[in-house]
Amino acid sequence: MSVLAVGFPDGESDRIVCDAGSYAASTDQSLIVAHIVPESSFARRQQSYAAFDTWDGEYSLTQAQDRAALIARTVATEALRGMSVAYRCVGRIGSLQREIQRLAREYDCEHLFMPRLRRPWYRRFSSDPLDVLSRSFSGPITTRPV
Q: Between the CA of residue 128 and those of 6, 89, 101, 119, 120, what are the distances in Å?
């Protein structure tokens, strides 16, 4: 069994990853730290790279996943400093809910830690990603406002 922590490179995610690390260490589980990039952000980055005259390559999905994993590693290194917990960092491209569900299945995660994202007032009437996850994720979900 594992614990899944979803973080963002914003300084606030350090606390949720630290909480997840403490929980994983106290329950003798491994920790999966993930950074998930929305498909729209990936597409924008691809377009911006394509606009450079000197750029003759492409920004691939593998490159984007590697970059996201590096961001997860940066967050984990800072948040888990001094903690004795086994962890793995992964990067994914796609929708937050779908990728969290995939990661939870792939790594047999029993507990999810994630920041509770602030939503603009005009989006508060649509479905909250956390609500969707709580209906599909069988384990506990711990959130912290960012």
A: 16, 25, 15, 9, 11
Residue 118, phi then psi, degrees to nearest 5? -75, 140
Residue pair 60/93 in contact (Cβ under 8 Å)? The answer is no
Helix (H) or strand (E) holding 7: none
- H helices of 13-95, in order, are 13-26, 39-50, 61-79
Question: For 20-33, how does the pLDDT look when each residue is reduced to its tens digit (9 = 90+)?
Answer: 999 999 999 999 99
pLDDT for 113-130, tens place per residue?
988 766 555 555 555 566
Q: Are strands 141-145 and 30-37 parallel, antiparallel or unpaired?
A: unpaired
Number of neighbouring beta carbons within 10 Å of residue 5: 32
In CATH, what number is assigned to the domain containing residue 109? 3.40.50.620
CB distance 146 to 117 below 8 Å = yes
Residue range(s) defining the domain that contains residue 73: 2-145
In total, how many domains does the chain have?
1
